[in-house]
Design a protein that fits this description.
This protein is of the alpha/beta class. Helices cover 22% and strands 10% of the residues. The protein has a single domain, classed as Ribonuclease Inhibitor (Leucine-rich repeat, LRR (right-handed beta-alpha superhelix)), CATH 3.80.10. The chain is globular and about 35 Å long.
């Protein structure tokens, strides 16, 4: 895939799994200027019900400058993986869709969503 891909929409993919996301989004080593996904700004996995916190964490650690993350109807996504992703991308996030997920305010996850430009 192109490192300058700006948007990735894999919605309602029943076979999309955490293993696939972990393979596709390897963590970016600290101090690295180049990332496989450096141009990726929007990711949507709406309705891909096999994705869990492990997959969301991989997305967060394998991208830079993510602005839009849509996880609506990813019913196995909870707060743990999202917390890491929000911490890494809190300055760039603009849209976060968590409709019909298992995300709660456990551990203060929603305090991380209070950025001036973020729409939840």
């Amino acid at each position: 895939m192109s490192p300058m891909l700006a948007s990735l929409e894999l919605e309602d993919c029943p076979q999309l799994s955490d293993d696939a996301l972990v393979d596709a989004f390897p963590p970016i080593p600290e101090g690295t200027l180049f990332s496989r996904w450096r141009g990726l700004k929007e990711v949507s996995f709406k309705g891909s019900r096999r994705i869990t916190d492990r997959g969301v964490k991989a997305i967060g650690q394998g991208t830079t400058g993510l602005r839009i993350l849509k996880l609506g109807q990813c019913t196995r996504v909870a707060s743990d993986g999202l917390r890491i992703t929000l911490e890494l991308h809190h300055k760039t996030f603009r849209v976060l869709d968590l409709s019909d997920t298992a995300v709660t305010d456990e551990g203060g996850i929603m305090t991380l969503t209070h950025t001036p430009r973020l729409s939840v």
